[in-house]
Amino acid sequence: MRYGSPLAAPPRRYRRVGRRAKRLLARVFVERHGFGPSSGGSHARPSRPLLSVSLGVGAFVRQRTVDSELGPWSLRAEWCWAPSHRVPPVTAPGLAKSSDIDLLGTNNETSALTSTHETWVTKNSINFLADPEDLPPRCSCPVCPCAFTRASSLTTHIWKKHPAEWNDIKKRRDASRRSNVRTYARWTREELERMAAIEHEALSKGVQHMNSYLTPFLARTRDQISCRRKKDDYKAILKSLESEAQCPGPDGSRARVVPDSPRNDHPTSGDLKSPKGRTGRKWSAEEIKVLQQAPRDVPDAELVPLLPGRTVQAIRSRRRRLVAQRAGPVGPAAQAPTDEEQVTAEPQPYERSMTESEQGISDYLYGILPNIPDPVVREKAKQAIGDPNGFSKLYNEFFPKNRTVSRRAMPAVKVGVKRRRAQRAIIYNFLQNLHKRSPKSVAERVLDSDLSYEGLVAERAFSDEDFLRKWKPVFERPCYADLAGDHPGPPLNELAAPIKVADVAAVIASLKESSPGPDGLRLNILRGIPVEVITFLYNLLLLKGPPPTRGKAGNIFTSRVTFIKKVEVPGDALEFRPIAIGNYFVRIFHRVLASRFEAALPNHRDQVGFKRLDGVAHNVLKLNAALNAARSKHENLVVASVDIRKAFDSISHEAILGILQRKGVPDLLMGYLRTYFSTSRLQIGKDLIHPKHRGVKQGDPMSPWLFNLALDQILEGQEEYAITIGAIVLNQMAYADDLILFASSQEEMQKRIERLTIGLGRLGLELNARKCCVLSIRGDKKRKFSFVDTDVSISVDGTRLPVVTAVSEFRYLGVQFNWKGVARTPLDLEKLLVRLNRAALKPQQKLIVLKKFLLPRLQHQLTFGRLHKGELVKGDKAVRRVVRRWLRLPADCPNSAIHTPARFGGLGVNSLETLYSTLKESRLTQLSYGDEEDAAIASNPAVRGLMSYKFRGSVMSSREGLVEDLHRRLDTRGLQGYEKVPAVNSWLDHAPTNLAGHDFQEAIRVRLGCMGTPSRLSRGGRSVDTICKCGSNARMSLPHIAQACSIVSGLRIKRHNNVVLYVAQILKEKKYDVIMEPRLQTERGLRKPDLVILAKKEIIVLDVQIRPDSVVCTLDACNREKIAKYNQPYVLDAIRDRFGHGLPIKVIALTYNWRGAAAQQSYQDCITNKLLRWRHFGPISRMILRDTARMLWAYWHAPADGATRPTASAEVLMDCAE
User: Fold this and answer.
1) Bridge partner list, 785
2) pLDDT for the residue numbered 590
3) What sequence ranges are listed for the domain Reverse transcriptase (predicted)?
4) CA–CA distance, 414 with 927 (Å, rounded to integer)
5) Which of 197, 561, 914, 1031 has the fewest beta carbons closer than 10 A?
6) Do 963 and 1051 share a domain, yes or no?
7) Taken in order 395, 397, 398, 399, is the CA torsion positive or negative?
8) Exposure pattern of 1149-1163 as b/e (b: 16+ CB <10 Å)?
9) How far is the CA of 153 from the CAs of 111, 634, 780, 1162, in angstroms?
10) Alpha-carbon torsion 551, 555, 560, 561, what sign?
11) Is residue 615 within 8 Å of residue 708, measured between CB atoms?
């Protein structure tokens, strides 16, 4: 090699290994062949090295011979362990003085390299190159080109950047360890329970030498069984079996556990066999009833889920015997069925006999009669008590007409328009017409749908016929599930107590106006009926039953169905969620019943759906804590997320009634519920559907409780599988139909799934295997690692459930989870902002959608998600960017003006960073004040890490910081005191649809002081004439234009008069006598108050003023000054002389400033004297801001000579009255 040759640069097939030489020692020997006298000739080895450099540690580097100007040289590096040294200045023949010799190929860590290196020589350095092909033992990443010296660094890199490969490595290590070392397997929970059952059965037989007796039944040695039987946990299991055996079952029999044969390692409950032979199980009355009620054309295999523990052959044999018994002789000679074959009688119809509960309700009706105000209604109510059709007649008196509500059609879209401007106009008209009906509908269309013209035209609107064709088979399909209760529990007589007036009044007061039911009755009409009459009707409904069907709306239990899409772009009618909207009369009654049921029959402790607690936070944080605990403590954990297919629409009516009967619900309510299920109808369009077998209405107040009560039977059957990881007890979690099951092994989870499938089959439900998933975490406590087992196989009816891998995620309650816990998911903010920005809406409408719909949509993800601070800051910047574009705010408008609450003068757009911290802190605090389990979850370190977020010196960290930053700015310091009257901000969130967008923009810019004036334009060193052209030698600023400039004095008077006209119009609508600007001659001159209001008992003097936004002279001080001006004896005498002598006189001032803020005393005086209402102060503020902006526009269009006052255009000077 010669100097300057291409070899002086590193070849492409090589790569540098490191850049720093530290803690490594390298001896580099540079030798020239034939240099110096040597006895070995010209090719003999020299006696000493010519160059020696001390730098670092490594492995032996092979010798390489190269050519240089001085002849062939041989370079060799020997690496050994030694402390690092400073490079001494050395010199070698053919090389320059190289005190800065660079040795590449070393690293700053302590791992020794055992590979070969190649070197090349330059004029001032010796470089080492590493060949990738020669470095297999080096700590290099097998996936990406990254390389490391330490094995721990490589492990951390693979764990963070390549989780799938990292998980495969751990799986291979675990498989290797299990196949090579360990032959002894840990005892599982199933083995312990099985051994305890066998021992319990053997103890009842008096077996001795128990260890020897148990050995043939278990795959364990005698010593293993003997040691395990001494443990406390096994003794506890055996003791629990003994206590259960002492309590008889529902049929009076005691539990019997029979051991299986020694050859069967994993028996099921139905396959247990004794050593002496098979013990059969008798058919119960419930099982025989299921067989008798099933039609003959139903295959035997479909009845297996309804009869747990029965095989297809047993069901077929028993059905044949039942058919033979039916075909036998009938008469006195016919043999009576045995006790175990007797079938429970069919439930009796809705009886009208006077029971104790009915007598109590009847007495209450007679007691409530005197409280009915109308004597005619009182007499009819009295007659209705003794009439069998009394409820129908009295109900028709108050609800005589069928007000069937027809669904309003969506705004039409013209087809075939090609011009882009015309298309945008069509979209704009479509959204504005939709906004008049419901702003919420506009927000949903903008954020969830394609609002281009092509999208509106091509969008398929599902008709009522489409929904009817798809959903009618779902609602009306038969159901063979039966859980009728042969052993009813103790009666709950408090459920059948009379409906109280106070309960009905409380429910009516808590309701909000919403969509009416099929009868068209709205809540305000129902509130006009005396609550005593409504309570009388509810009690009469329990006694007499509902009225018959009337017209197209069916009866009072008929509900019209509205469909809400579950996906962004539904392609099928089944991808909607049916919501039943019932009549207000039934909704109120069912809410009263639901509150009673909830108090008397509480749901299972693992069911947190539809309860008065934070069930979402409880389940999400508990699942996150469980996954973190299993990973950190290296425990085995199997998690199954279960989805029930069409749960609310498929649950069996007979199963619900049977469960209620076993719970002890009185016959009075049972009769009402049977009538409700049998006569209820669903209205889709003009057609009625009769779901007589299954389904509870989504939207009915009583449906959540009924569904939870039925699902409690499933949860109670899964309680024995509880496991403990650390301080967390895991068994199951439920939020309505969203279930999470926990297990310690794959076999245990498979048993839980099978038991769950059987239990759901008895309720008429089934699992949706496509939407279920399984996560299996396996840990090795000895070697301290955990990994995801992707070889787990759990199936439902032969369909294998999807498995969560190390890189995949699953969704539960709207939160994304992976095997580590809550996963990091990016915000959907950018996509939503783009859709909202492109929507054909006015600026005020976009701002309202952003504040009320878009940001609240992200609250759930902000509460339970994992987000970086940078992502939150980026989202806030994107929000501020679009707000500035919509409102045309300048770039120097402070960020605090956008994020400060509206009551303090800002726009009230929440900051993501503030929301992220506030929501997490509030939900965690609320959970910590719950029960004992909630407090334990809130104190978990993993939960604390997820739900904690701290600011680091940010202005956006608190509301106080935002307000302080806003009020110290030059342009916005005049907003101080805005919070004293929050009513002036109502126009921000309730801007009228007929308000022009540019008027709203200008009102915002005036309020924030961001209008373009010479004073603002001169900032930054720009040369601008800042002297006003009115000739007053004052700086032309926004306060000067609003309050002092003579050029727009006419518009300033007009602004004042517009406020006076608006207030006078409101007072005239309230039937007040209003005199505008009366001329009062006093001893001190002429006085002209704006308004004199003549009330019945007093005279009110009201004067309006618009003052500067001075910090020194507050609005309250200006208000007191104005009151003192007219509250003088000579003024009051003049008013008495003109309008009346005996009436008292009160003086009130309506004080605003040019930014739209009002004096607190003015607000209190107007509200106290009932002159103005809360909603009137916002339009006055908006009116002042709009007129101030027009004054600035007139100033810019005035001539430059200030001596002559210009006349503003007719548009500017037009009357601004509302």
Assistant:
1) 780
2) 92
3) 545-792
4) 53
5) 1031
6) no
7) positive
8) bbbbbbbbbbbbbbb
9) 11, 21, 21, 70
10) negative
11) no
For residue 266, name the pLDDT band (cuts at 50, 70, 90): very low
877 and 902 together in one domain? yes
731: left (phi over 0), alpha (psi -120 to 50) or beta: alpha
Is there a single domain that holds both residue 756 and residue 836?
no
- Residue 591 has what pLDDT? 92
Where a domain ends, among 792, 823, 854?
Answer: 823
Asked if the structure places residue 944 within a domain, the reply is yes
Calculate mean pLDDT across residues 41-45.
38
Residue 264 lies in a domain: no
Q: CB count, 10 Å around CB of 979?
A: 16
Instruction: Label residue 1006 by pLDDT band (50, 70, 90).
Output: very high
Distance of CA 1182 to the CA centre of its chain: 36
Band the pLDDT of 1058: cuts 50, 70, 90: very high
Cα separation, 3 vs 525, in Å, equals 101
Same domain, 765 and 857: no
Q: Characterize the bridge pairing of strands 723-725 and 728-730.
A: antiparallel
Q: Model's pTM, two decimal places? A: 0.72
What CATH number is associated with residue 804? 3.30.70
What does each C-alpha distance from 600 to 416, 496, 593, 714, 930 come to in angstroms? 62, 11, 11, 20, 21
* Residue 958 clears pLDDT 80, i.e. is over it: no
565-580: average pLDDT: 79
Relative orientation angle of helices 997-1007 and 1177-1196, to the nearest 10 degrees: 90
Share of the chain above pLDDT 70, in %: 75
- Compute how many other C-beta atoms are within 10 angstroms of the C-beta atom of residue 270: 11
Q: Are 210 and 195 in contact (CB under 8 A)?
A: no
Tokens of 653: 């009516």
Alpha-carbon distance of 1059 to 342, in angstroms, equals 85
- Per-residue pLDDT averaged across 758-781, rounded? 89
Q: Kindly state the average pLDDT of the residues 757-766.
A: 88
Q: What is the mean pLDDT of residues 288-294?
A: 77
- The mean pLDDT value for 520-525 works out to 83
Residue 282 DSSP code? P
Please provide the size of the chain in residues.
1218
Rounded Cα distance between 1105 and 381, Å, is 60
The pair of structure tokens assigned to 240 is: 């629990």
* Residue 1130 sits in the same domain as residue 1033: yes
CB 133 within 8 A of CB 15: no
Q: Which of 230-244, 411-425, 877-891 has the lowest mean pLDDT?
A: 411-425
Report the number of distinct structural domains present in the chain. Answer: 5
Q: Same structural domain for residues 1143 and 1051?
A: yes
Residue 977 clears pLDDT 80, i.e. is over it: yes
Q: What residue numbers bound the domain in which 1132 lies? A: 1010-1216
Domain membership flag for residue 52: no
What band does 1015 get if pLDDT is binned at 50, 70 and 90? confident
- Per residue in 655-701, pLDDT (tens digit) is 888 888 888 888 888 888 988 888 888 888 888 888 888 889 888 89
Residue 1110 Cα to chain centre, angstroms? 45
Whether 954 and 1016 share a structural domain: no
Q: Encoding tokens for residue 962?
A: 């935002």
- Judge whether 57 and 24 are in contact, CB under 8 Å: yes
Domain end residue (candidates: 823, 856, 891): 823
Q: 270 falls in which pLDDT band (50, 70, 90)?
A: very low
Strand residue runs (E) in 707-829: 723-725, 728-730, 732-735, 738-743, 773-780, 785-788, 795-796, 799-800, 810-812, 815-818, 821-822
**Residues 1183, 1119: one domain?**
yes
Which phi and psi (to 5°) does residue 252 adopt? Answer: 90, -10
> Do 120 and 1 meet the contact criterion of CB atoms below 8 Å apart?
yes
Residue 652 domain-assigned? no
